[in-house]
Amino acid sequence: MQRDHGGDLDRARAKRGGDDWIDLSTGINRVPYPVPALAPEAWTALPTANARDRLLQAAARAYRTQAPMVALAGAQAAIQMLPLVLGEAGRTVRILSPTYNEHAACFSTAGFTVEPVDDPAALVGASIAIVVNPNNPDGRLIPPADLLALRKQVGLLVVDESFADPLPDLSLAPHAGEPGLVVLRSFGKFFGLAGVRLGFALGDAAIIARLTAMAGPWPVAGPALEIGAAALGDAAWAQATTERLSQEVPRIDAMAQAYGWALAGGTHLFRLYETPDAAAAQEHLADHRIWSRIFPWSPRLIRLGLPGMECEWLRLAAALER
Amino acid sequence: MQRDHGGDLDRARAKRGGDDWIDLSTGINRVPYPVPALAPEAWTALPTANARDRLLQAAARAYRTQAPMVALAGAQAAIQMLPLVLGEAGRTVRILSPTYNEHAACFSTAGFTVEPVDDPAALVGASIAIVVNPNNPDGRLIPPADLLALRKQVGLLVVDESFADPLPDLSLAPHAGEPGLVVLRSFGKFFGLAGVRLGFALGDAAIIARLTAMAGPWPVAGPALEIGAAALGDAAWAQATTERLSQEVPRIDAMAQAYGWALAGGTHLFRLYETPDAAAAQEHLADHRIWSRIFPWSPRLIRLGLPGMECEWLRLAAALER
């Protein structure tokens, strides 16, 4: 069940050596939220219900929702658990594709039939429909109104909003809480703290209750509860980060386009470019110790996360100099 | 699916107030392994395969095993996942009881029939047999030779060694790797870092492979991988801690016995006492802002973890003064 993922910098480093790699193979913000000083109890004690509730309150405010919600060890944990709590293997799941490959893999492993579709209209009538919004890797956006209409035309609509933080008006979280809709949120990407392992599922009360039961009493580490509550409660940081990313997206696009790559999509956290030869483009960047993401299903697409510190931007600019 | 657990200090504190509580309601070492300085990447990057492998190598040395092993977010995560990967709900599980209540709860939730038995001999012939060794809460020890014999008389033997760190000769980990045996280890209890969420399952290759697949690519947080590798690699700390606990067990037993409680069992990390009235005993300690564990299935038993700093020992001594 090995799927390819970004973040596999170890392999690139092992093959080519060097220790000053810039990992742009993921959509993880490279200017992370500063980890606050942690109470010793965050490490030593079993995570408490109070700490969990503080996190959930901060998440509810940040995501503008009053829907039932569960905190899990990453959006990935929610993706892994959803097929298990939905039970009834053998049912069909339609996934708007191409997209993050764990959705199909986890449903398939759990015994569901997975039908990739490339048109949102083809989701109508599905028993379970999955949409990543904005989509990874192409950044396709589906308006919330369309998804709210779709919700009534499918058995269950799952919207993975792992990259939605800079676009709060895109989110269905404020509209969640009725049956038939589950929204997934990632903490680690926008806040640049993927090692923390934190994410959320919210929406349909019965499904959230089943996820909560399956997750057990301590699904999230004590430090993650504290860091998550602090970061999700810091609206000023989120706004400043969104503004920074909004200014930097044109900067990386201009570099790539000047190098001859065509913009194929993206979000505030990663950009997708069409190149004559994605593998060669990845090799070229790797010669500059910059790691990128290419896809087994496309010979021409390459995805880059945004650099962080100015020195990283300069390294990328040098690599993309003609 | 709310089960009672230790570590619920929030509730005691909310009811009685005060913020200088000593939590002896768990078996978590109150003199924790010092959390080392962490590389920033432990927080920011997706946990890497290299970091996971360093942890597994340290765990293999500490547990003296070469068996297939998977790192999970706590022994609790292994307990939750085992019924799911064993599949075939409807089968019967025999659990040597009374013991940690999550084993029965998780198998029962997954659709298995749970048969508690109070005699190890009654496990013979079981499809799945579960033993906690040393047992929680009574500290009962089953010799490894007996369990190795039992392994051949059951379909699958699961040995939860969450409290075995101070008794390395008790562990079946060095004998694991053949089919039909799975050993669970907890990191947070002996090392006093329960908030980290780290544990291990090792043994039967097919079952460990299924747990690994179900756990997904990033089941353990980046800081947990680093802290676990450092702590499990520190044999001197483990030895010093075992010696300290060995000296402190008679100290707490003497206090309790002088107070009129009878020793009913225990391990290096917690002690079980028989009292005239467990609820009254818990209330009495709570009046001194010391939190303890009592059990819904026993009106007379109370469990205490060992105090940590000397001031905590003096507080307990004062509470148990006649």
Could you please describe the fold and organization of this structure?
Chain A has about 325 residues and is an alpha/beta fold. Chain A has two domains: about 10-30 and about 235-320, Alpha-Beta Complex (Aspartate Aminotransferase, domain 1), CATH 3.90.1150; about 40-235, Aspartate Aminotransferase, domain 2, CATH 3.40.640.10. Chain A starts with 8 loop residues before the first helix and ends with a helix. Chain A is about 40% helix and about 20% strand. Chain A is built from eleven helices and 13 strands. Chain A is globular, with a radius of gyration of 20 Å. In chain A, β9 and β10 (about 270-275) form a beta hairpin. Chain A has a seven-stranded mixed beta sheet, sandwiched between helices. The first copy, chain A, has a four-stranded antiparallel beta sheet with strand order 9-10-13-12, with helices on one face. The longest helix of chain A is centred in the C-terminal third of the chain and has 24 residues, at about 235-260. The mean pLDDT of chain A is about 95.
CATH architecture of the largest domain in chain A: 3-Layer(aba) Sandwich
Number of domains of chain A: 2
Tally of separate helices of chain A = 11
Helix amount of chain A, in percent?
25-40%
The chain-level mean pLDDT of chain A equals 95
Largest sheet of chain A: 7 strands, mixed
SS-based class of chain A: alpha/beta
CATH class of the largest domain in chain A: Alpha Beta
Q: How many whole angstroms does the radius of gyration of chain A measure?
A: 20 Å
Q: What is the name of the CATH superfamily of the largest domain in chain A?
A: Type I PLP-dependent aspartate aminotransferase-like (Major domain)
Shape of chain A: globular
CATH topology of the largest domain in chain A, by name, is Aspartate Aminotransferase, domain 2
> How are helices and strands ordered from N to C of chain A?
HEHHEHEHEEHEEEHHHEEHEEEH
Based on DSSP secondary structure assignment, what is the total number of beta strands of chain A?
13
Low-confidence stretches of chain A: none
Order of strands, main sheet of chain A, comes to: 2-8-7-6-5-3-4
Most extensive chain interface and residues per partner: A-B, 53 and 52 residues
